[in-house]
Amino acid sequence: MSEESLHHLSPVWTHLSDEIIERGEGAYVYTAGGRRLLDFTCGIAVTNTGHCHPKVVKAIQEQAAKLIHAQINIYYHQPALRLVEALRGVVPPALDTFFFSNSGAEAIEASVKLARHATGRPGVIVFQGSFHGRTIGTMSLTTSKTVYRLRYQPLMPGVTVAPYPDTYRYGWDPEAASQWCLKELRHLLHTQADPSETAALLIEPVLGEGGYLVPPPSFLPGLRRIADEHGLLLILDEVQSGFGRTGKFFALEHFGVVPDILVMAKGLGSGMPISGIAARRELMDRWQPGTHGGTYGGNAVACAAAAATIHVLQEEGLVDNAARQGQRLMAGLGNLQSRYPVIGDVRGLGLMVGVEFTKSGPDRAPDPAAAKAVQARCLASDLILLTCGPYANVIRWIPPLVVTGEQIDTALAVFESALSA
Ligand SMILES: Cc1ncc(COP(=O)(O)O)c(C=O)c1O
Fold first, then answer.
1. Most CB contacts within 10 A, which of 108, 140, 369, 418?
2. For residue range 340-390, what is the model confidence (pLDDT) as tens digits?
3. Any ligand 1 atom below 6 A from CB of 238
Protein backbone atom coordinates (compact mmCIF):
# COMPACT_ATOMS: atom_id res chain seq x y z
CA MET A 1 0.00 0.00 0.00
CA SER A 2 1.37 3.36 -1.01
CA GLU A 3 1.20 6.00 1.71
CA GLU A 4 1.82 8.48 -1.06
CA SER A 5 -1.92 8.11 -1.76
CA LEU A 6 -2.61 9.99 1.48
CA HIS A 7 -1.64 13.17 -0.34
CA HIS A 8 -4.40 12.58 -2.84
CA LEU A 9 -7.21 12.62 -0.28
CA SER A 10 -9.15 15.88 -0.23
CA PRO A 11 -7.91 18.28 2.44
CA VAL A 12 -11.53 19.14 3.29
CA TRP A 13 -11.47 16.19 5.71
CA THR A 14 -9.96 17.17 9.05
CA HIS A 15 -7.97 14.45 10.85
CA LEU A 16 -7.77 13.66 14.52
CA SER A 17 -4.86 11.24 14.04
CA ASP A 18 -2.50 10.13 11.28
CA GLU A 19 -2.96 6.45 12.03
CA ILE A 20 -3.97 4.01 9.30
CA ILE A 21 -6.28 1.53 10.97
CA GLU A 22 -6.22 -2.04 9.78
CA ARG A 23 -8.88 -3.72 11.85
CA GLY A 24 -11.28 -3.22 14.72
CA GLU A 25 -12.70 -5.48 17.40
CA GLY A 26 -15.10 -4.42 20.14
CA ALA A 27 -13.84 -1.23 21.75
CA TYR A 28 -10.41 -1.39 20.07
CA VAL A 29 -8.88 -0.53 16.71
CA TYR A 30 -5.47 -1.81 15.58
CA THR A 31 -2.85 -0.44 13.21
CA ALA A 32 -0.82 -2.65 10.87
CA GLY A 33 2.16 -1.91 13.10
CA GLY A 34 0.35 -3.49 16.07
CA ARG A 35 -0.67 -0.35 17.95
CA ARG A 36 -3.94 -0.90 19.84
CA LEU A 37 -6.15 2.10 20.55
CA LEU A 38 -9.19 2.27 22.81
CA ASP A 39 -11.77 3.82 20.51
CA PHE A 40 -14.15 5.95 22.56
CA THR A 41 -15.44 7.70 19.42
CA CYS A 42 -17.25 4.78 17.81
CA GLY A 43 -16.68 6.43 14.43
CA ILE A 44 -18.81 9.33 15.73
CA ALA A 45 -21.47 7.28 17.54
CA VAL A 46 -21.84 4.63 14.86
CA THR A 47 -20.37 1.34 16.04
CA ASN A 48 -22.63 0.96 19.08
CA THR A 49 -22.27 -2.84 18.93
CA GLY A 50 -18.47 -2.45 18.90
CA HIS A 51 -16.21 -2.80 15.91
CA CYS A 52 -17.04 -5.82 13.74
CA HIS A 53 -19.47 -7.54 16.09
CA PRO A 54 -19.39 -11.20 14.92
CA LYS A 55 -23.18 -11.45 14.50
CA VAL A 56 -23.30 -8.28 12.42
CA VAL A 57 -20.34 -9.43 10.33
CA LYS A 58 -22.04 -12.79 9.74
CA ALA A 59 -25.28 -11.13 8.65
CA ILE A 60 -23.35 -8.91 6.22
CA GLN A 61 -21.34 -11.81 4.81
CA GLU A 62 -24.37 -14.06 4.35
CA GLN A 63 -26.42 -11.35 2.68
CA ALA A 64 -23.53 -10.21 0.45
CA ALA A 65 -23.18 -13.75 -0.85
CA LYS A 66 -26.89 -13.86 -1.74
CA LEU A 67 -27.84 -10.41 -3.01
CA ILE A 68 -26.11 -7.06 -2.54
CA HIS A 69 -28.39 -4.59 -4.23
CA ALA A 70 -32.08 -5.00 -4.78
CA GLN A 71 -33.38 -1.57 -5.76
CA ILE A 72 -36.50 -0.96 -3.72
CA ASN A 73 -38.52 0.67 -6.51
CA ILE A 74 -37.96 -2.43 -8.61
CA TYR A 75 -38.53 -5.30 -6.16
CA TYR A 76 -38.74 -6.03 -2.44
CA HIS A 77 -36.16 -7.99 -0.48
CA GLN A 78 -36.21 -9.95 2.77
CA PRO A 79 -33.61 -7.92 4.73
CA ALA A 80 -35.74 -4.76 4.41
CA LEU A 81 -38.76 -6.68 5.72
CA ARG A 82 -36.71 -8.16 8.56
CA LEU A 83 -35.49 -4.68 9.43
CA VAL A 84 -39.03 -3.29 9.53
CA GLU A 85 -40.00 -6.11 11.86
CA ALA A 86 -37.02 -5.43 14.14
CA LEU A 87 -37.60 -1.68 14.16
CA ARG A 88 -41.27 -2.10 15.05
CA GLY A 89 -40.13 -3.74 18.25
CA VAL A 90 -38.07 -0.74 19.34
CA VAL A 91 -39.65 2.50 18.04
CA PRO A 92 -42.83 3.94 19.62
CA PRO A 93 -45.65 1.68 18.35
CA ALA A 94 -47.53 4.57 16.70
CA LEU A 95 -44.61 5.09 14.30
CA ASP A 96 -45.33 2.03 12.21
CA THR A 97 -44.19 3.02 8.72
CA PHE A 98 -40.60 3.41 7.50
CA PHE A 99 -38.55 5.01 4.74
CA PHE A 100 -34.87 4.11 4.33
CA SER A 101 -31.91 6.09 3.04
CA ASN A 102 -28.13 6.02 3.50
CA SER A 103 -26.85 8.85 5.70
CA GLY A 104 -28.14 10.94 8.57
CA ALA A 105 -28.37 14.04 6.40
CA GLU A 106 -30.40 12.17 3.81
CA ALA A 107 -32.85 10.98 6.46
CA ILE A 108 -33.20 14.53 7.83
CA GLU A 109 -33.89 15.75 4.30
CA ALA A 110 -36.52 13.02 3.98
CA SER A 111 -38.16 14.10 7.24
CA VAL A 112 -38.34 17.72 6.12
CA LYS A 113 -39.62 16.76 2.67
CA LEU A 114 -42.33 14.59 4.24
CA ALA A 115 -43.26 17.39 6.67
CA ARG A 116 -43.50 19.99 3.90
CA HIS A 117 -45.35 17.68 1.54
CA ALA A 118 -47.84 16.43 4.12
CA THR A 119 -48.64 19.81 5.69
CA GLY A 120 -48.35 21.98 2.59
CA ARG A 121 -46.34 24.42 4.73
CA PRO A 122 -42.74 25.43 3.93
CA GLY A 123 -41.18 26.51 7.24
CA VAL A 124 -39.03 24.56 9.70
CA ILE A 125 -38.05 25.70 13.19
CA VAL A 126 -34.74 24.41 14.50
CA PHE A 127 -32.94 25.02 17.79
CA GLN A 128 -29.75 26.93 18.51
CA GLY A 129 -26.72 24.65 18.53
CA SER A 130 -28.25 21.84 16.51
CA PHE A 131 -26.41 19.69 13.98
CA HIS A 132 -28.46 18.00 11.29
CA GLY A 133 -25.97 17.37 8.47
CA ARG A 134 -23.91 18.87 5.69
CA THR A 135 -26.01 18.82 2.52
CA ILE A 136 -27.25 22.23 1.38
CA GLY A 137 -30.62 21.52 3.02
CA THR A 138 -29.36 20.11 6.31
CA MET A 139 -26.53 22.64 6.62
CA SER A 140 -29.28 25.28 6.52
CA LEU A 141 -30.86 23.56 9.55
CA THR A 142 -27.53 23.37 11.40
CA THR A 143 -26.43 26.07 13.86
CA SER A 144 -23.73 24.39 15.96
CA LYS A 145 -20.80 26.19 14.25
CA THR A 146 -20.45 28.70 11.43
CA VAL A 147 -17.78 26.54 9.78
CA TYR A 148 -20.52 24.22 8.50
CA ARG A 149 -22.03 27.01 6.38
CA LEU A 150 -18.91 29.05 5.65
CA ARG A 151 -18.85 30.27 2.02
CA TYR A 152 -21.75 27.98 1.09
CA GLN A 153 -24.40 30.70 1.08
CA PRO A 154 -27.18 31.12 0.15
CA LEU A 155 -28.83 28.71 2.52
CA MET A 156 -32.20 27.04 2.06
CA PRO A 157 -34.88 29.56 3.01
CA GLY A 158 -37.74 28.92 5.43
CA VAL A 159 -35.63 28.05 8.48
CA THR A 160 -36.09 29.88 11.80
CA VAL A 161 -33.83 29.31 14.80
CA ALA A 162 -35.33 29.14 18.30
CA PRO A 163 -33.29 29.20 21.54
CA TYR A 164 -32.23 25.93 23.17
CA PRO A 165 -32.10 25.64 26.98
CA ASP A 166 -28.32 25.64 27.29
CA THR A 167 -28.51 25.87 31.07
CA TYR A 168 -24.78 25.71 31.70
CA ARG A 169 -23.93 28.51 29.26
CA TYR A 170 -26.81 30.68 30.48
CA GLY A 171 -25.90 29.90 34.09
CA TRP A 172 -29.61 29.39 34.80
CA ASP A 173 -31.69 26.94 36.73
CA PRO A 174 -32.70 24.23 34.17
CA GLU A 175 -36.43 24.69 34.65
CA ALA A 176 -36.16 28.47 34.30
CA ALA A 177 -34.15 28.00 31.08
CA SER A 178 -36.72 25.52 29.76
CA GLN A 179 -39.69 27.82 30.46
CA TRP A 180 -37.89 30.81 28.96
CA CYS A 181 -37.12 28.90 25.75
CA LEU A 182 -40.68 27.63 25.43
CA LYS A 183 -41.95 31.18 25.89
CA GLU A 184 -39.52 32.44 23.25
CA LEU A 185 -40.73 29.75 20.84
CA ARG A 186 -44.32 30.93 21.30
CA HIS A 187 -43.12 34.49 20.74
CA LEU A 188 -41.30 33.42 17.59
CA LEU A 189 -44.44 31.73 16.23
CA HIS A 190 -46.20 35.04 16.80
CA THR A 191 -43.49 37.32 15.41
CA GLN A 192 -41.43 35.49 12.76
CA ALA A 193 -42.78 32.11 11.70
CA ASP A 194 -46.54 32.00 11.49
CA PRO A 195 -47.84 28.49 12.29
CA SER A 196 -49.83 28.47 9.05
CA GLU A 197 -46.50 28.57 7.19
CA THR A 198 -44.59 26.25 9.53
CA ALA A 199 -44.40 22.53 8.83
CA ALA A 200 -42.34 21.29 11.74
CA LEU A 201 -40.21 21.71 14.82
CA LEU A 202 -36.96 19.78 14.34
CA ILE A 203 -34.73 18.96 17.33
CA GLU A 204 -32.12 16.52 18.62
CA PRO A 205 -33.46 15.15 21.94
CA VAL A 206 -29.89 15.39 23.25
CA LEU A 207 -27.82 18.00 21.42
CA GLY A 208 -24.83 16.19 19.91
CA GLU A 209 -22.32 18.18 17.90
CA GLY A 210 -23.63 21.30 19.69
CA GLY A 211 -22.06 20.18 22.99
CA TYR A 212 -23.80 17.10 24.39
CA LEU A 213 -26.55 19.08 26.09
CA VAL A 214 -29.39 17.26 27.80
CA PRO A 215 -32.58 19.35 27.84
CA PRO A 216 -34.42 19.94 31.14
CA PRO A 217 -37.25 17.38 31.62
CA SER A 218 -40.04 19.81 30.75
CA PHE A 219 -38.59 21.03 27.44
CA LEU A 220 -39.45 18.28 24.95
CA PRO A 221 -42.95 17.72 26.42
CA GLY A 222 -43.39 21.50 26.10
CA LEU A 223 -42.42 21.33 22.41
CA ARG A 224 -44.88 18.47 21.89
CA ARG A 225 -47.66 20.63 23.40
CA ILE A 226 -46.82 23.65 21.26
CA ALA A 227 -46.64 21.48 18.13
CA ASP A 228 -50.08 20.02 18.90
CA GLU A 229 -51.61 23.41 19.61
CA HIS A 230 -50.55 24.72 16.19
CA GLY A 231 -50.75 21.58 14.05
CA LEU A 232 -46.96 21.47 13.58
CA LEU A 233 -45.12 18.19 13.21
CA LEU A 234 -42.47 17.35 15.79
CA ILE A 235 -39.39 15.75 14.22
CA LEU A 236 -36.86 14.14 16.58
CA ASP A 237 -33.36 13.71 15.17
CA GLU A 238 -32.07 10.60 16.97
CA VAL A 239 -29.22 10.14 14.51
CA GLN A 240 -26.63 10.38 17.28
CA SER A 241 -28.72 9.63 20.39
CA GLY A 242 -30.46 6.50 19.06
CA PHE A 243 -29.87 2.76 19.29
CA GLY A 244 -29.13 2.48 22.98
CA ARG A 245 -26.63 5.30 23.16
CA THR A 246 -28.34 7.11 26.06
CA GLY A 247 -29.18 4.00 28.09
CA LYS A 248 -32.64 3.74 26.48
CA PHE A 249 -33.28 2.47 22.98
CA PHE A 250 -34.13 6.03 21.94
CA ALA A 251 -33.48 9.20 23.94
CA LEU A 252 -37.15 10.16 23.56
CA GLU A 253 -37.95 7.50 26.18
CA HIS A 254 -36.23 9.64 28.84
CA PHE A 255 -38.72 12.43 28.16
CA GLY A 256 -41.97 10.55 27.47
CA VAL A 257 -42.40 12.24 24.09
CA VAL A 258 -43.55 10.60 20.86
CA PRO A 259 -42.63 12.57 17.74
CA ASP A 260 -44.49 12.65 14.45
CA ILE A 261 -41.29 11.71 12.65
CA LEU A 262 -38.30 9.89 14.15
CA VAL A 263 -34.99 10.18 12.29
CA MET A 264 -32.40 7.39 12.63
CA ALA A 265 -28.91 6.69 11.22
CA LYS A 266 -25.41 6.06 12.66
CA GLY A 267 -25.93 3.27 15.26
CA LEU A 268 -28.64 1.67 13.13
CA GLY A 269 -26.20 -0.14 10.85
CA SER A 270 -23.13 -0.72 13.08
CA GLY A 271 -21.11 1.05 10.37
CA MET A 272 -22.97 0.07 7.21
CA PRO A 273 -24.41 3.22 5.65
CA ILE A 274 -28.12 3.12 6.41
CA SER A 275 -30.58 5.65 7.78
CA GLY A 276 -34.30 6.05 7.91
CA ILE A 277 -37.37 7.77 9.21
CA ALA A 278 -40.36 6.34 11.04
CA ALA A 279 -43.81 7.94 11.09
CA ARG A 280 -47.47 7.07 11.49
CA ARG A 281 -49.06 5.34 8.49
CA GLU A 282 -51.59 8.17 8.18
CA LEU A 283 -48.77 10.72 7.82
CA MET A 284 -46.75 8.58 5.38
CA ASP A 285 -49.92 8.11 3.31
CA ARG A 286 -49.83 11.84 2.63
CA TRP A 287 -46.41 11.46 0.90
CA GLN A 288 -47.29 11.15 -2.75
CA PRO A 289 -45.62 8.14 -4.39
CA GLY A 290 -42.65 9.09 -6.57
CA THR A 291 -42.06 12.48 -4.94
CA HIS A 292 -39.08 11.13 -2.96
CA GLY A 293 -36.69 8.18 -3.18
CA GLY A 294 -33.11 7.21 -4.07
CA THR A 295 -31.08 4.47 -5.69
CA TYR A 296 -29.58 2.85 -2.59
CA GLY A 297 -31.96 3.56 0.30
CA GLY A 298 -32.75 0.28 2.02
CA ASN A 299 -29.76 -1.54 0.48
CA ALA A 300 -30.04 -5.27 1.16
CA VAL A 301 -26.66 -5.72 2.89
CA ALA A 302 -27.14 -2.56 4.98
CA CYS A 303 -30.64 -3.72 6.00
CA ALA A 304 -29.25 -7.11 7.03
CA ALA A 305 -26.60 -5.37 9.15
CA ALA A 306 -29.23 -3.13 10.73
CA ALA A 307 -31.61 -5.96 11.60
CA ALA A 308 -28.67 -7.88 13.13
CA THR A 309 -27.62 -4.75 15.04
CA ILE A 310 -31.04 -4.42 16.68
CA HIS A 311 -31.04 -8.11 17.62
CA VAL A 312 -27.54 -7.84 19.12
CA LEU A 313 -28.53 -4.76 21.16
CA GLN A 314 -31.53 -6.67 22.51
CA GLU A 315 -30.05 -10.13 22.99
CA GLU A 316 -26.87 -8.93 24.67
CA GLY A 317 -28.57 -6.38 26.94
CA LEU A 318 -26.41 -3.61 25.52
CA VAL A 319 -28.88 -0.82 26.24
CA ASP A 320 -28.82 -1.71 29.94
CA ASN A 321 -25.05 -1.96 29.76
CA ALA A 322 -24.95 1.57 28.31
CA ALA A 323 -27.01 2.83 31.27
CA ARG A 324 -24.80 0.97 33.76
CA GLN A 325 -21.44 1.92 32.29
CA GLY A 326 -22.71 5.44 31.75
CA GLN A 327 -23.27 5.75 35.49
CA ARG A 328 -19.78 4.50 36.17
CA LEU A 329 -18.35 6.97 33.66
CA MET A 330 -20.35 9.90 35.03
CA ALA A 331 -19.31 9.06 38.60
CA GLY A 332 -15.64 8.90 37.58
CA LEU A 333 -15.84 12.15 35.64
CA GLY A 334 -17.76 13.85 38.47
CA ASN A 335 -14.93 12.88 40.79
CA LEU A 336 -12.37 14.40 38.39
CA GLN A 337 -14.48 17.56 38.09
CA SER A 338 -14.25 18.09 41.85
CA ARG A 339 -10.45 17.94 41.62
CA TYR A 340 -9.71 19.70 38.32
CA PRO A 341 -11.28 23.17 38.10
CA VAL A 342 -10.72 23.27 34.33
CA ILE A 343 -13.70 20.90 34.09
CA GLY A 344 -16.66 23.24 34.22
CA ASP A 345 -19.42 20.73 33.59
CA VAL A 346 -20.03 17.00 33.24
CA ARG A 347 -23.35 16.01 31.68
CA GLY A 348 -25.02 13.36 29.63
CA LEU A 349 -27.24 10.32 29.48
CA GLY A 350 -25.97 6.75 29.29
CA LEU A 351 -22.87 6.61 27.11
CA MET A 352 -23.41 10.04 25.57
CA VAL A 353 -21.39 12.13 27.99
CA GLY A 354 -19.78 15.54 27.60
CA VAL A 355 -17.03 17.17 29.68
CA GLU A 356 -16.92 20.93 29.20
CA PHE A 357 -13.60 22.72 29.71
CA THR A 358 -13.88 26.29 30.94
CA LYS A 359 -11.56 29.00 32.19
CA SER A 360 -11.83 30.06 35.82
CA GLY A 361 -14.17 32.97 36.44
CA PRO A 362 -17.90 33.54 36.69
CA ASP A 363 -18.57 33.80 32.93
CA ARG A 364 -17.61 30.17 32.26
CA ALA A 365 -15.54 31.14 29.21
CA PRO A 366 -14.79 28.16 26.95
CA ASP A 367 -11.29 26.68 27.15
CA PRO A 368 -10.76 24.85 23.84
CA ALA A 369 -6.98 24.83 24.29
CA ALA A 370 -7.32 22.75 27.47
CA ALA A 371 -9.76 20.34 25.78
CA LYS A 372 -7.43 19.95 22.79
CA ALA A 373 -4.36 19.38 24.98
CA VAL A 374 -6.14 16.71 27.04
CA GLN A 375 -7.47 15.05 23.88
CA ALA A 376 -3.95 14.98 22.36
CA ARG A 377 -2.43 13.47 25.51
CA CYS A 378 -5.13 10.81 25.62
CA LEU A 379 -4.43 9.95 21.98
CA ALA A 380 -0.72 9.65 22.74
CA SER A 381 -1.76 7.16 25.45
CA ASP A 382 -3.89 5.14 23.02
CA LEU A 383 -7.30 6.52 24.01
CA ILE A 384 -9.25 8.18 21.20
CA LEU A 385 -11.74 10.87 22.25
CA LEU A 386 -13.57 13.48 20.18
CA THR A 387 -14.50 17.04 21.00
CA CYS A 388 -17.73 18.87 20.24
CA GLY A 389 -19.51 22.10 21.09
CA PRO A 390 -19.50 25.45 19.27
CA TYR A 391 -16.07 26.21 20.72
CA ALA A 392 -14.70 22.63 20.57
CA ASN A 393 -14.21 22.83 24.34
CA VAL A 394 -16.32 19.76 25.18
CA ILE A 395 -14.74 16.31 25.16
CA ARG A 396 -17.42 13.81 24.26
CA TRP A 397 -17.40 10.24 25.50
CA ILE A 398 -19.06 7.83 23.08
CA PRO A 399 -17.68 4.35 23.81
CA PRO A 400 -19.36 1.35 22.24
CA LEU A 401 -22.25 -0.15 24.17
CA VAL A 402 -20.20 -3.34 24.64
CA VAL A 403 -17.71 -1.39 26.76
CA THR A 404 -16.69 -3.04 30.04
CA GLY A 405 -16.23 -1.45 33.47
CA GLU A 406 -12.54 -2.19 33.18
CA GLN A 407 -12.27 -0.30 29.89
CA ILE A 408 -14.14 2.66 31.40
CA ASP A 409 -11.71 2.67 34.35
CA THR A 410 -8.71 2.47 32.02
CA ALA A 411 -10.02 5.40 29.99
CA LEU A 412 -10.68 7.43 33.16
CA ALA A 413 -7.14 6.77 34.38
CA VAL A 414 -5.68 7.90 31.04
CA PHE A 415 -7.93 10.97 31.11
CA GLU A 416 -6.82 11.85 34.62
CA SER A 417 -3.14 11.59 33.78
CA ALA A 418 -3.77 13.83 30.74
CA LEU A 419 -5.56 16.33 33.01
CA SER A 420 -2.78 16.37 35.56
CA ALA A 421 -0.16 16.76 32.82
C1 LIG B 1 -27.79 14.56 15.27
C2 LIG B 1 -27.23 14.38 13.89
N3 LIG B 1 -28.05 14.53 12.83
C4 LIG B 1 -27.62 14.35 11.57
C5 LIG B 1 -26.30 14.03 11.31
C6 LIG B 1 -25.84 13.84 9.89
O7 LIG B 1 -25.53 12.51 9.68
P8 LIG B 1 -24.56 12.07 8.47
O9 LIG B 1 -23.19 12.55 8.80
O10 LIG B 1 -24.69 10.58 8.43
O11 LIG B 1 -25.11 12.72 7.24
C12 LIG B 1 -25.42 13.87 12.38
C13 LIG B 1 -23.99 13.54 12.15
O14 LIG B 1 -23.14 13.73 12.98
C15 LIG B 1 -25.90 14.05 13.70
O16 LIG B 1 -25.10 13.91 14.77
1. 108
2. 999 999 999 999 999 999 998 888 999 999 999 999 999 999 999 999 999
3. no
Is residue 208 lining ligand 1, measured as CB closer than 6 Å?
A: yes
What is the C-alpha to C-alpha distance for residues 184 and 127, in angstroms, rounded to an integer? 11
Residue 104 Cα to ligand 1 middle (Å) = 5
44: Cβ below 6 Å to ligand 1? yes
Q: Are 130 and 210 in contact (CB under 8 A)?
A: yes
In a mutational test of the pocket of ligand 1, which residue from 140, 240, 263 has the highest number of ligand atoms less than 8 Å from its CB?
240
- 120: nearest Cα among 198, 209, 12: 198
User: 263 alpha carbon to ligand 1 midpoint, in Å?
Assistant: 10
**Cα–Cα distance, 388 to 368 (Å, whole number):** 10
* Beta-bridge partner residues of 99: 277
Q: Which amino acid is at 318?
A: L
DSSP-assigned letter for residue 41:
S
Q: Report the alpha-carbon distance of residue 251 to residue 248 in Å, rounded.
A: 6
**Residue 374 Cα distances to 33, 145, 336, 421, angstroms:** 25, 22, 13, 8
131 in contact with ligand 1, CB cutoff 6 A: yes
How far apart are the two ends of the chain, measured CA to CA in Å? 37
Give the residue from 392, 397, 418, 384 showing the smallest Cα distance to 21. 384
CA of 230 to the centre of ligand 1 (A): 28
Full-model pTM:
0.98
Query: Does residue 109's CB lie within 6 angstroms of at least one atom of ligand 1?
Result: no
